Amino acid sequence: MLSLPVTLTQAQATACLDQLTTGVRQEATAQVVVDGAQLRSFDSSALAVLLELRRECARAGKHFVVQGLPQRLRDLAALYGIERLLPSA
User: Fold this and answer.
1) Distances in Å between the alpha carbon of 61 and those of 23, 35, 64?
2) How many CA atoms lie within 13 A of 31 on its CB side?
3) How many CA atoms within 13 Å lie on the side-chain side of 40?
4) Which of 8, 16, 27, 89 could form a disulfide with 46 if both were Cys (CB 3.0 to 4.6 A apart)?
5) Element (H, E) at 2
6) CA distances (Å), origin 3, targets 21, 38, 40, 53, 62
7) DSSP of 5-71, one letter per residue?
8) CA 37 to CA 66: how far, in whole Å?
């Protein structure tokens, strides 16, 4: 399981994505679960990271799911019309 950090804003997005992408490549299972339970401070960059991670999973032939995302982030995804791209575990 991969985890999002406590803070994920534009300032952390590139480093976070690099770390999570490495995790996807090292994941031995066909399903990659991303846990957002620790996430407390974020902006729309968090959604960009999740969407790029979803694309990385697709390229690797792996199924992408999320769990524990804060409701505010889910609300933001709904506002942008992308909530279906972030399936729950």
Assistant:
1) 14, 20, 10
2) 8
3) 2
4) 8
5) strand 2-3
6) 12, 8, 13, 12, 17
7) -SEESHHHHHHHHHHHHHHHHH--SSEEEEE-TT--EE-THHHHHHHHHHHHHHHTT-EEEEES--H
8) 10
- Cβ count within 10 A of residue 61: 7
Write out pLDDT tens, residues 2-56.
999 999 999 999 999 999 999 999 999 999 999 999 999 999 999 999 999 999 9
Tokens 């968090």 found at: 46
Element (H, E) at 3: strand 2-3
pTM: 0.95
**Token pair in block for residue 51:** 């969407």
